[in-house]
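User: Sequence in, structure out. Go.
Assistant: Echoing your sequence, followed by the structure tokens.
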Amino acid sequence: MEKILVSACLMGRKVRYDGGAKTSSDAWLAGWRAEGRLVPFCPEVAGGLPVPRLAAEIEGGAGGAAVLSGAARVLASDGSDVTAEFLAGAHGALAVARAHGVRMAVLKEGSPSCGVLAVYDGTFQGRRTPGQGLTTALLEREGVRVFSEERLPEAAGYLRTLET
């Protein structure tokens, strides 16, 4: 059975920067959970960041690939550099994915770790820009297909292709 890496906050775990969760009630996730497919993971907590913590954004909204290449940093809202923790979390996610044979993931949109289609622009003004979070960029680079929780029917279609 194919396993799916999933953002822990979508599973109701209170791991977000504000101490909350973003629990999804989507039927696809509920079904995959019942089947035992889901592997919940929070890269930011795994990277050593506390709950709650300051909000963080990728400087300039550059995206995760820029952080991986060293061209951008992840900064907390007080200006402190949390790039090392975000990198550690992304590599932790990849290690867990490999340990479970994961070939696809469902991650939380907008996060500087998990954003799939968009991240915040680095100004802490609530503006999004197209791009991927750090964990998403690393997973995709290493062959794990990542979907936003906003695109679960598409994820389900991809899962079917993996199982045929």
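User: And one key feature?
Assistant: The chain has six helices and eight strands.
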